[in-house]
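Recall the central idea of this unit: under ordinary conditions, the amino acid sequence of a chain determines the structure it adopts. In this exercise we apply that idea directly, starting from the sequence alone.
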Amino acid sequence: MTDKAFLNLLKTYEQYHVLEYYHSLPAEKQNLFLKNLEGLDINLIFSLYNSFSQKKDFSYHANAIKQADIIKIPKTSEEKALYKKARAFGESLIREGKVAVLIVAGGQGSRLGFEGPKGTFPTTLIKKKSLFQIFAESIKAITKKYNTSIPLLIMTSQENHEDTIDFFKLHDYFGLEKDTISFFRQGMIPSITPEGQLILKDETHLFTNPDGHGGSLKALHDSGLLRDLMKKGFTELFYCQVDNPLVRMADPVFLGYHALSKAQVSTKVVRRTNIDEKVGIYLSINGKDAIAEYSDLPPEFMAALDVNGNIQYWAGNTAIHAFSLAFIKHINHHGYAVPYHCARKTIEITDNNNLSIQRDTWKFETFVFDAIPLAEKTCCMEVAREKEFSPIKNNDGADSPYTASIAMNNLHRSWLENAGVKVPPAAQVEISPLFALDNEELKEKIKGKELQISKNIYLG
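Accordingly, the structure predicted from this sequence is:
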């Protein structure tokens, strides 16, 4: 789009305050202002604004909600046999070079009192490894175990893109081959006032916001990475977010269930700890599998108990998915099919007199789990929370660095104890993925060996 066409577009949408401001700038800053607008979809923002202006507050109708079919943690001999079959099938996919990994890592560590990308946050108890290092070591261990190559795709944001790349360079890509790692930016979308006005952020920028973790599937397509992966013969994508250090990267069992089900989208879930836990719920809604935000569900459903007094709608979203690459291509074929949500926020901006003012704002974003109802076939797998889900979202309290470190310590301690090692009660345990990816591999590694047990136990 030419500069003239863009300015005419602003006129079409009656953004005269932006046009007036633009014409007040010197030529050099006018050019910079227009350059900074490149890639922003102005037509989209006003289409969304018009749509949400007419929408009422949304919630699911109770009659539309049912329990979804979920593959539970195996207990019977039949379930265990299927689990074993899924693992073998998933391992074959990895071994044959069909699997890529995507980590969504656009966030900063500011909520943790930490400067820098959240993926660089020091997480492990003993070695203080970053989230990125934990995941990279897992990928390295998997590629070695299966003698394969796994592309690692990392979605960053405008805010942390260069810092993330520099962090990987500084640490020599944590032993991974540089050409197997790709960094790509999350999309941005203009924010807008409730009155339909674009907001000036500073001299040469409009106020924008990231388009949500659902934008990862759009950015993967738009960046050309999806096309490149499919050309090279990759067929499946393992997806996770950077804040959960317990993620089992490219889990072969999960990938096996996903492929055996011929699913286009698959999801891992854990049992909700209580009826007040603020987590999306995996359900069947109007006959389609979906994840509903807790805020969109009727309170009676969030609090519903079964005949045994357990939480009825128990399947909490972990933000761990598997996608068919062909499906990601399909939902991008005629524009991005995943729906947008509107978040109403108050932001602080600086006016022309350099004074801070607050503005009510509508921010539009997409959620990756909204791709689930678009799929013809889906799969959902229950996993144990203590083994696979302990996100770091808050500085303290629930879902904090402290709770995640306890979860990692307890998990690795259980691996040693299951292998017959007596671990002192106060000992801290950390096991690198490079030493063992799971309990079974650890048991095999230390068979017939005597471990030196001390206050801190690190196996790497």
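The chain is about 35% helix and 20% strand.
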